[in-house]
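Input structure tokens:
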């Protein structure tokens, strides 16, 4: 991809996004089993500041008294990761999607951006120092690590790579066609050849 092609891709992407009436992520919310343990994980280890703590005494779903706390941890663009914990362990358990077990990444995960592969690996080391194991995946169009938070939420930290714009431009040109084809076929063989060697079959 030449510089000129890259500039065209970036300009096209900006104009596509400008006409989208739904903006950036406001927050992603998740139930946790221990809010202080959660705060330590997201604020002290990952560096996301706690910017809001709301305490509620009425459960708006059941319309019954039910004391819970709702916290917001801020990302670089102002969007947030939000969490809930109820005083009643029963309420927390019954409303948790995962019963606080580690989630399979295909079932649910949240991916957050960082700048550069070195930063991804820096976080991997920092997590390891705190006893949190993570695994790396080279997706071709981005490079990621995956790990679980203390309540089992699968978190991904990912960075764009030099090939990202070109790969996304090409994928964008065939996105609907590829989807339609996959829906029709039992075993569509279009492996992502951009993936790292560990993923080639
Ligand atoms: Fe992902």
């Amino acid at each position: 991809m030449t510089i000129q092609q890259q500039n065209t891709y970036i300009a096209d992407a900006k104009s596509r996004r400008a006409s989208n009436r739904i903006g950036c992520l406001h927050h992603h919310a998740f139930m946790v089993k221990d809010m202080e343990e959660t705060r330590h994980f997201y604020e002290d280890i990952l560096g996301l500041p706690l910017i809001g703590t709301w305490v509620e005494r009425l459960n708006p779903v059941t319309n019954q008294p039910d004391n819970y706390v709702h916290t917001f941890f801020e990302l670089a663009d102002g969007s947030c990761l939000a969490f809930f914990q109820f005083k009643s362990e029963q309420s927390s358990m019954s409303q948790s999607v995962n019963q606080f077990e580690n989630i399979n990444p295909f079932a649910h995960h949240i991916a957050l951006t960082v700048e550069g592969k070195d930063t991804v690996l820096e976080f991997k080391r920092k997590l390891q120092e705190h006893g949190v194991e993570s695994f790396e995946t080279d997706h071709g169009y981005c490079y990621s690590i995956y790990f679980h938070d203390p309540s089992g939420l699968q978190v991904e930290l990912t960075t764009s790579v030099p090939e990202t714009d070109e790969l996304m431009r090409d994928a964008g040109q065939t996105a609907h066609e590829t989807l339609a084809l996959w829906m029709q076929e039992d075993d569509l063989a279009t492996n992502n050849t951009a993936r790292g060697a560990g993923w080639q079959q």
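Residues 109, 111, 156 surround fe (ii) ion (CB under 6 Å). The two ends are 26 Å apart (CA to CA).
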